[in-house]
Amino acid sequence: MAPLLEVRDLVKHFPLDGGMLTRLLPGRPGRVVHAVDGVSFVVEPGETLGLVGESGCGKTTTSRLILRAIEPTAGRIFFEAQEITGLSPAELLPFRRKAQIVFQDPYTSLNPRMTVERIVGEPILVHRLVASGELRARVRTLLEMVGLQSEHAARYPHELSGGQRQRVGIARALGLGPRLIVADEAVSALDVSVRSQILNLMTALRERLHLSYLFVSHDLSVIRFVSHRVAVMYLGRLAEVAPADELFKRPLHPYTQALMAAIPTIGDGRASIFDQPERLLEGELPNPIDLPRGCRFAGRCPFRFDRCAEAEPELKEVETGHTVACYLYE
Amino acid sequence: MRTLDGLTVESPGVTVPTPAAEPGAAAGIGRWWRRFARSKGAVFGLAVFLAIVVMAVFAGVLAPYDPLTQGVGAPLEKPSLAHWAGTDSFGRDMLSRIIYGARIALIVGIVAVLLALVAGVTLGLVAGYYGGVLDAVIMRVMDALFAFPIIILAIAMMAIMGFGVTNVIIAVGVGFIAPFARVTRGDVLAVKEEPYIEAARLAGIGNLPIIFRHVLPNVLAPIIVQGALRVSGAIITEAGLSFLGLGPPPPTPVWGSMIAEGRNFIVMAPHISTIPGVALMLTVVGLNLFGDGLRDTLDPRLRR
Asked: What is the ipTM of this complex?
């Protein structure tokens, strides 16, 4: 079966804007931030791919690139075997229906001046998916699907709790009948108790509606809970991609190992390693503007050897479905 | 556990609290009024504003004499029971002229501000939302307009277009575009980065619907406040133009030209200048206090 989403060598460099003067000066090489630097992966139908990494590693940029919210510097994106990169806004409309997003912050992702009914109904209306007379019923169905009740339709976002708002955000995304939902830190801003409810809801919806998720998070416990496969991202590149069980049982890349080692073993297990940077790793995160030559993790890697400084390792399949970008396994 | 056509949604503890009262529009206004009423100045301002509006609307009923008829009393008569505000040099009733003057002041103030608001908000929305060259061009023009003294601008425009109420409105309106464009653009720049705008864009909603349904409602409060505060400025500008003889031509009862006329008799009959002056001052102070009250209660950034 063809993958639902395929990303090939996606690159996004943000130019460091030096202002008008520096742009006019000849002979100055434009400096760029290497936010995403050659990322390739696939998402299969019905699958949840977890994308995990530190703040600033490019995971949010990747999610925005896939949805064509920002334009890639290079690389190609295929959705249902159709190339998405290069489509005009009008040509993108069918894709917009099929790929939706759930945001991190339920407080800023809903228009405060609109009722829940209008928030959820607007995309459906714009795409003329139902006759206007049936819109109300459609919105009620969607609200029930995400565990809200029809009396919530008349409310404004500020009258709802964080968890309820996030349900509205999910309902809005579901309204267009998507195949893929990009969940960008979708539960990171929620209380722990609400978080598990939303994760359960999203899992249930995936099974019922045959959805695929690209689940972006910095929280390993969340990623482990929802993902079929996990991609570990480090400074704009994928370090390792593997089935979730496999990755958590046998992490291969030194970076992944460091992440796993830093998961707290005592306590509720929910605190993320990134909340305690001092436990993470020795050494500084390299500057994404002036990247070192060779493997970008080498500076912090306990196993580095000569070859690591020469060239960047590519993702290689070490076992079936388990790929890693590290010279230790070549 | 709830079963929704085939789907079992495990959502333990998802209790949906029923709100004590459905906060509709009426409740919202009630809440706003309670905050607004806390400021005595704001309430005073609103009262003055309403009084001026009543004067303007019912001028025909309230005015004891026709404002244009000369010789309804002796010239330069002091305030008396027959003529509460005295008479001017033509023996016209001052009170009637002030009441009719309120009509012109208010019409010029409100219509000019509405004109400036529509034009300025449109330009600000376009500049802020689209950015780039469009933004640079629009805002530099606005800067030029802003740097130009409104009175000078109005004098130049009146010289080209001629006198009359309509032209005063256009001149003052054009002079007031820049502040609306600036306020709007600034807020649009902040609002357009909100995730709900990105959500709309990713749902395939076009730029114009996004601007009107998502951006505009979220920048409206400071614009309304700005509008209320600018009405008094427009009234002052109109009075200034009339004082200089650039307003509606005589014998139209206009506060500014009444003050100007009274200058010649300031020793003999000081009421001719001072009473329209007091009317103008009360109107402006009232509108400013009302505008401040609106700002404190509507503009979320200044909310306490």
From this structure: 0.83
